[in-house]
Amino acid sequence: MNGIQPPTIEYGQLMPLLLVFGAAIVGVLIEAFAPRYLRKAIHVPLTMLTLLGAFGLVIVQVLRDGVPTAAVAMGAIAVDGPSLFIWGVILVLSVVSVLLINDDDNFVASAAAVPGSPDEEEAIARGGAHTEVYPLALFAIGGMMLFAASNDLLIMFVGLEVMSLPLYLLCGLARRRRLLSQESSVKYFLLGAFSSAFFLYGMAMIYGYAGTVDLGGINDALGRVGGQDTLLYLGTALLGVGLFFKIGAAPFQAWKPDVYQGAPTPITALMASGTLVAAFGAVLRVFWVALGNLDWDWRPVMWGIAILTMIVGAILAITQTDIKRMLAYSSIAHAGFLLTGVIATGEATQNANSLSALLFYLLAYGITTVGAFAVVTMVRDAGGEAGHLSRWAGLGKRSPALAGIFAFFLLAFAGIPLTSGFFGKYAVFAAAVAGGALPLVVVGVVSSAIAAFFYVRVIVLMFFSEPAADGPTIAVPSAGTAAVVALAAAATVVLGVYPQPVFDLADAAASSLFVR
Amino acid sequence: MGETITFWVLAVVSVSAALGLVLSRRAVYCALMLGVVMLSLAVLYAVQDAPFLAAVQIVVYTGAVMMLFLFVLMLVGVDSSDSLVETIKGQRFWAIVAGAGFAVLLGLAVGNAVLSPPAGLLGATQTAGGNVPALAQLIFTRHVFAFEVASALLITAALAAMVLTHRERLTEKPTQRALARARFLTGGSVVLPGPGVYARHNANDMPALLPDGSVSELSVNRVIARHDVEDERFPDDPKLAEAIKQAVEEESK
Amino acid sequence: MNLMLAPVPAGPSLADFGKDPLWISIIKAVFIFVFLLLSVMFGVWMERKLISRMQNRYGPNRAGKFGLLQSVADAVKMGLKEDLLPRTVDKVLYTVAPIILVVPAFMAFSIIPFGPMVSMFGVETPLQLTDLPVAVLFVLAMASIGVYGIVLMGWSSRSPYAVLGGLRSSAQVVSYEIAMGLSFVGVFLFAGTLSTSEIVAAQADGGTWEIAGLSIPLPSWYVVLLIPSFLIYAITMLGETNRVPFDLPEGEGELVGGYQTEYSSSLKFALIQMGEYVNVFTVSAVSITLFFGGWRAPWPISMWDGANVGWWPMLWFFIKLVLVFSCFIWVRASLPRIRYDQLMAFGWKVLIPLNLAWIMLVATVRAFRVEDANRGVIFTLAAIVLIGCFGIWFRFDTVLQRRRENRAAEVEAEFEQLRDEPEAGGFPVPPLDLPHYHGADRKEVPSGSN
């Protein structure tokens, strides 16, 4: 027997992650053993308590230990400042999204029944919906946390898959317009699988170059290994494809509108907020930690992608007639704005500034997005949510409060002062200017202006046109949805009026940068 | 030397199998070609001092995954060709251009990549005392978290398969008894008469009926008939009465 | 006092392989090939003969003494028959499939140890073609390639019976292979290696148990130490080779000949038969290697010093092989074929979970034996698992009990009702007013007066 030293796992620091995964597994056991009528009653408190508990653990960890300075779990996971902040953001967004998921019948009664078949009618008549969504959502959330905190490419890939696989499934579980939902699921799955393959291929190339999958190790290899740049560039490009697909940067954005439109709206909210946050965490880790010294090489490409993403997102959004597709394109444009922050690297202080701006932006954008999608779930007609923009005409006259809040969210997306979006954009653009990316900022401002046009168009539509005779009804919000909308609106206002505490927090998280 | 020969032989085999996979029209052949590619890979792994990987490649990929593919293909019989209508005009052309361009780019890049001299696995495995222990050491120490988290992936996949395909039985499965009861309630009979028999009774004193509904004389019970004739008590059914009379007459001849 | 007499000679280990000159390897390979060919012939004869005696008949007794040449005659006949090629079959796969079945079956035998180091024409070499650090996995790998042969035979025949037989067989083999692989895990945990020669070496000595001054030798064969593993392996061995009671793929009552329906008795059919028998020998040899001490002599013989050296062990190996093969025949003579859904349910719902639980147990016991293991943690975890299992069992038991009581009450209520009104529930009762056309006052007619 040759001895293998047992690995050291820092359970304390990993506790938020382990809690989420553990609760997910408990959820699966509940699915297996609890009677059907009890399942939802067990799942909802379990999921909420888990997410809140994990959030509490993150806070406790920050308060007690400060920011850790070494990678944990044998160097697989980096629980550093940005990780903890991103975990906090993901957990807050997840709590809010789970409130939406919990809301009411968003999910299919029996996913195995063919849409429109007698089986489906029977399943609907029996009532209830798939309760597997709770453990699946927990797995996805755990994957997001892992993805953003991974310290080597291997665990990053596993995190990517753990995050994506439940989402592929969840996208196909919409209760209404099931064919659209299933189509979105298949599209997301196929394209996601392709992008994972690209990521894996890039990983292999980088491994061939550096001889390690450790992010810090790759960074060291940049200075050590010479003469194999082709392999490195190829690997970087392929890794980039995988990551840019996840954030929905052009030209890898094509899946976003279709998936956002087809998926059940609470899942769209989770994807649009949590996945984006996690994916940006991973992008930052790969490009700043592993390939930080290669920035002269990847920056021009990233410039191109950022510009393309902003412009594509802003211009294509104008042509959309579906509210969820419009929000999807808006999300693409926002990914472009965020990329300007990724490009703005430089000295350590500059990096910390950019990072802090990005973290703030992610929080502000994420919470507003969840709020906007929560409003979308409430505007309904006979066939479910009223997605088409023409159905939203005159909403301001029927339901001024809701339309007002939605208009406020849209203004936050546009970056109008006194909303959280303004400070987010301001911070990122300021960091980009400081990082010497002035032309990029100009493009960003121009595309923000274009984006503002279609946001304002929706507002005009809601408030200044006559409501249709058979217009959609506004569902009386359940406590969960109402709480989500209220929370998101409050956060948008508070972050827009008094953002300083959160900025300070982001600064503190970003000050020590990533551990290597 | 041996490794080089193996490589070039398998290179030809696996590349042609991969081409066959893409170009073959029948789904089953595609699956088989994929199997060949996987087997070639396994042999390459084995040649490069990675026997564990080779065995696992065959057991897991060739043996289980591909077998399931093949199984589904055979069971479902997916041999129909795909719809070739382009939903976006010119899509196929541009897709081919982009794909070929990407392939050329990738090929050139990999072809031109300068590689450091191969280190081989021997050094890594010898320090740990063999291929399997070396892998175990990596999996259970450095990458233990990735290894454990992969279980989340597997659970998700299993759960996803259940959600997408398993239809819960909404009503209880009818038992044999329930089925029988349903049949009787709708007016069925206990035991259906055998084929070619038109009978409504199985009592001894009721004669059988022929397909046209008339009484079969052959089946009239002689004993009872004789008594009936003697007592002059005939049944209400005139056909039956006629048959009984005839039967007795024939007997007395 | 020592009951075990002969000191255990060390067997070959992984380091002894890969040193043979090429001609030695060729001799060994040819030997295995010839050995398997002859075994198939002998096996067919033996199976027919043994099962005949079990069924009180003679079996083949015309060709040669005791009918020994029957297999030879059959082989010659198969070789000389016309090779029919049905018109609609997929010609390439139809021809290739039997070969795909046979080749891996032969290859799997290359890692079976026949004996210890011997001197072969002046070269010290182990009596085993080769060994790998993953030798047992290699057997599984070869088995999983062999399945392709079966599936393709079914598919390429283009006949419903063949396709169904092929599907059944592949599903069965793939399912049982999982349970089989799991049943090896216990052996791996005990032996600490996946190489067959080292597994045999690990079964050489079970150690001794010191009690009251006596040192009692402990059993060294894993069949004793790991009985559950062995039992599961023995069952999966039958399933893996499509033998009775799991010979569903060729259940002649429903599927004619299963995947081999379209193969007439030509050389291709001979190949199929050969592949099946070689598979049986392979799983038997693996069972011997993993559970019955390989080529090592059983206890009374092992007291003789020369039992485990030189060429003798090959004899012990052959004897064990014949005995295990006889068990296959015994099973075939005794058990009926089971239904297909029962087969799958048994594989997935009984064998695999049992196996997993057993592996947990074995691993826990092994963890105890690690010196500086944290016993408290192990105890706690084991207790949690046990309590969890008990909780689940309790819950299911109460639910089942409740369900059973409900059903009994239902049946009781139904009978109650039927007693009062016989036609309730639509059940037919004999009609009391059948249209009889004569009254009760008819005369008695003595029989025979007709």
Shape summary of chain C? globular
Into which percent range does the helicity of residues of chain C fall?
55-70%
Q: Kindly report the spatial arrangement of strands forming the biggest sheet of chain A.
A: 2-1-3
**Number of helices in the DSSP assignment of chain C:** 14
Mean pLDDT over the residues of chain C: 82
Low-confidence runs of chain C: 1-7, 437-441, 443-450
Strand content of chain A: under 5%
Assembly state (oligomeric): heterotrimer
Arithmetic mean pLDDT of chain A:
89
> What is the count of distinct domains of chain C?
2
Total DSSP E strands of chain C:
4
What descriptive keywords fit this protein?
heterotrimer, B: 253 residues, mainly alpha, Four Helix Bundle (Hemerythrin (Met), subunit A), 10 helices, elongated, C: 450 residues, two-stranded antiparallel sheet, 14 helices, 61% helix, disordered N terminus, disordered C terminus
Explained architecture:
The complex is a heterotrimer of chains A (516), B (253) and C (450). Helix content of chain A is 74%, strand content 1%. Chain A is built from 20 helices and three strands. Chain A has helices spanning 11-33, 36-65, 81-102, 118-126, 133-149, 153-171, 178-210, 215-224, 229-247, 255-262, 265-290, 295-318, 323-343, 348-378, 395-398, 400-414, 420-434, 438-464, 479-497, 500-511, and strands spanning 379-381, 384-385, 473-474. In chain A, strands 2-1-3 form a three-stranded antiparallel beta sheet. In chain A, a hairpin with a 2-residue loop joins strand 1 and strand 2 (384-385). Chain A is globular and about 70 Å long. Chain B has 253 residues and is mostly helical. Among the domains of chain B are: 1-78 and 123-148, NADH-ubiquinone/plastoquinone oxidoreductase chain 6, subunit NuoJ (Four Helix Bundle (Hemerythrin (Met), subunit A), Up-down Bundle); 198-252, no CATH class. In chain B, 66% of the residues lie in helices and 0% in strands. Chain B contains ten helices and no strands. In chain B, helix 1 runs antiparallel to helix 2 and helix 5 (122-128) crosses helix 6 (131-142). The model of chain B has no long low-confidence stretch (mean pLDDT 80). In chain C, helix 1 packs parallel to helix 12 (312-334). A two-stranded antiparallel ribbon of chain C has the order 1-2. A two-stranded antiparallel sheet of chain C has the order 3-4. Chain C is mainly α. Chain C has two domains: 14-373, no CATH class; 375-413. In chain C, 61% of the residues lie in helices and 4% in strands. Chains in contact: A-B, B-C. The interface between B and C is large, with 46 and 42 residues.
